[in-house]
Amino acid sequence: MSKKAVVLYSGGLDSTTCLAVAKADGFEPYAMSFAYGQRHEAELKVAKENARAMGAVEHLLVEFDLRRIGGSALTADIEVPKEGVGSDIPVTYVPARNTIFLSFALGWAEVLGAFDVFIGVNALDYSGYPDCRPEYVSAFQTMANLATKAAVEGAGHYRIHTPLINLTKAEIIRKGLALGVDYGRTHSCYDPTPEGLACGRCDSCRLRLKGFAEAGAEDPARYVARGDK
Q1: What is each CA distance from 90 to 43, 69, 125, 160, in whole angstroms?
Q2: What tens digit of pLDDT does each residue of 95-145 get?
């Protein structure tokens, strides 16, 4: 018998792979996406179009505006860096984003009677965000089991699943391809054109392109830098 799981689903490469993994592991995935004022809203179009096609039982879009807080190149008038991944936490880090996302997912899970939450964070080929690390996920899981009625009353124990956390981007892509993921139906770019073309130069594009190259596969995304039409 399958179990319900809430899957954080942005429409990007990692979250789409994570959704495929949850389904392959026998869960009934309930996909949750966020319109939080991000400049790369093209990902939401992808998420809306593909959640059910990816096997989601339901797709919930939560809307709030982190532009009122700012502090990130994704939510404020700060230029998205295009010079490559550095050693410092980049300006594309959105303050407390995964904590906010996981809190919404935890609330929905409790209402659904689910005790499993999937998030596609990665601690290897990533931009250095502090809320993608294993110790962060472990701390949130501990909090989830202290802060919810269902856990405190013994109905179940919450588990935050991070199936991609120790994989390289190439390994993530290979896993997704093996599960039948169509990466042409994903979006990763932080600074796409109005037509939805990926810039090919931001951290997210660079990591994606590097991953496909190392996986020996062709990236089906459409890029400005490659002259795609």
Answers
A1: 20, 17, 14, 25
A2: 999 999 999 999 999 999 999 999 999 987 666 889 999 999 999 999 999
Q: Has this prediction a pTM greater than 0.70?
A: yes
- Going by C-alpha positions, the residue among 85, 173, 166 that lies closest to residue 133 is 166
d(CA 27, CA 36): 27
Q: Are the CB atoms for 33 and 45 separated by under 8 Å?
A: no
Selection from 203, 223, 197, 207 nearest residue 172 by Cα: 207
CATH number of 3-181: 3.40.50.620
- The whole-angstrom separation of Cα 87 and Cα 229 is 33
169-216, pLDDT tens digit by residue?
Answer: 999 999 999 999 999 999 999 999 988 899 999 989 999 999 999 999
Q: How far apart (Å, rounded) are the C-alpha atoms in residues 85 and 101?
A: 24
User: Is residue 211 within 8 Å of residue 168, measured between CB atoms?
Assistant: yes
